[in-house]
Design a protein that fits this description.
Structural class: alpha+beta
Helix content: 10-25%
Number of helices: 7
Strand content: 25-35%
Oligomer: single chain
Strand order of the largest sheet: 14-8-7-2-1-18
Distance between the termini: 57 Å
Largest sheet: 6 strands, mixed
Length: about 400
């Protein structure tokens, strides 16, 4: 008999100010229905504790969180911290409460959304941890949480970090990694208005994840020329099992294909759209973490290349040392000035046999493609006609690819 943990996410707005922030609470609910004893491990260096943690997570636990649970949650946070790069520590508030049903495992999400900071797409909301990573500074008040997590104290947890989860228990590391993923930005703003209409956005603006949502036919959900917002057509678009996340780095990590999202025929509030498609990314595979189902006995201790590609497309600075079979990113480019308003100068690594430079917008569109003259110590690229915002620069060569984020102001 197969059973599974079904995850449903919810966004509840609590604050909209006249400045740049939008308070939100994001919860996820899981119900035990199946067993699947599979394990996708974390990188060996992370498991051994020798991997560099590039982003600090400050975990504030309530008094009733067991010490063994604290260790598992710290492990999950450190896995994310080895991939993400932020100069601002990410503060996570962790509560441990009886939810009245042991099948309800946890809820988590960004404490606040921000817009209008340096490096942001115009009129676009960002979860606070992502906003601070891009801006390079604290945006909320000192001591405020960036992510809120509430775990069910009565769930049948496995607290180990080795992935040897018994078939009748739930791996806490996997659930916390999944929940932190939502808090870090893996979430959409879509919600039902009534039984016949769906809306997208908060206060007339989209969240960064939203702007990459398209049907398989290439129709963007955020294009007012295609979809009235709210509308029955939007609801149809997310209930046809053909919704995708389409952006260059996510595509690259998905073997060049657009990334299918969870879009069942009946809209599932909080679960639809904000997860990868379970049918495509099966249990035990490298991209299973952010699907809507986690089996009892299943352990997923790595974000996976597709999820990391999505994070990079949304603007997360991160290490692209991924487990994908795609050509790896060799490192960060030296780009100056950055931010820029006219031209940028790119200095490649000495001896790199380069082919071309590509510049992508935050919506995944290729905006520039320029051939590279062999042997040049520096490459110049004009950004004078681009609107302010964050862009992705890719430099391809015979021995690999190099990447950088460029802020245009």
């Amino acid at each position: 008999m197969r059973t599974f943990l079904r995850c449903s996410a919810f966004l509840f707005p609590v604050l909209l100010s006249a400045q740049t922030d939008y308070g939100a609470y994001y919860g996820i609910t899981c119900a035990t229905q199946d067993t699947n004893e599979v394990f996708f491990p974390v990188d060996a260096a992370i498991l051994a504790g020798s991997a560099e943690v590039k982003t600090e997570f400050i975990l504030d636990f309530t008094d009733d969180v067991p010490a063994e649970a604290e260790a598992a949650i710290r492990f999950a946070a450190n896995v994310w911290g080895t991939y993400l790069i932020s100069p601002v520590p990410i503060r996570v508030n962790v509560a441990w409460e009886d939810r009245g049903d042991r099948r309800l495992l946890a809820s988590a999400g960004p404490a606040t959304l921000f817009r209008g900071f340096v490096g942001a797409e115009p009129n676009t909301w960002y979860p606070v941890a992502l906003a601070e990573a891009i801006a390079g500074q604290d945006l909320n008040d000192t001591g405020d949480s960036d992510i809120n997590v509430n775990a069910n104290s009565t769930a049948n947890w496995y607290f180990g970090t080795d992935g040897n989860t018994p078939r009748n228990q739930i791996d806490l590391v996997s659930v916390m990694m999944h929940e932190l993923g939502h808090g870090l930005g893996f979430l959409s703003s879509v919600d039902t208005v009534n039984t016949n209409q769906l809306a997208i956005g908060f206060g007339g603006r989209f969240i960064i994840y939203d702007i990459f949502l398209e049907t398989e036919a290439g129709l963007p959900l955020t294009d007012p020329g295609v979809f009235t917002n709210p509308s029955p057509e939007l609801l149809t678009a997310v209930t046809g099992n053909d919704l995708t996340f389409d952006a260059p780095l996510a595509r690259r990590e998905n073997n060049g294909a657009i990334v299918p999202l969870f879009a069942p025929s009946t809209f599932d509030v909080g679960s639809s759209v904000s997860h990868l498609n379970e049918a495509t990314y099966r249990p035990g595979t490298e991209n299973a973490l952010m699907t809507p189902f986690l089996s009892s006995g299943e352990s997923v201790h790595d974000p996976g290349p597709v999820t990391l590609g999505i994070f990079a497309d949304m603007g997360w600075p991160l290490v692209f040392d991924l487990t994908s079979t795609q050509e790896a990113i060799r490192g960060e480019l030296a780009v100056f000035p950055n931010p820029a308003s006219n031209d940028i100068t790119i200095r490649p690594e000495p001896g790199a046999q380069l082919r071309q430079v590509q510049l992508y917008g935050a919506d995944g569109r290729l905006l520039r493609r320029q051939a590279v003259v062999p042997g040049l110590p520096a490459i110049q690229l004009s950004v004078a006609d681009l609107r302010p915002g964050m862009y992705t620069l890719l430099l391809s060569g015979e021995s690999g690819n190099w990447r950088s984020r460029v802020v245009v102001r």
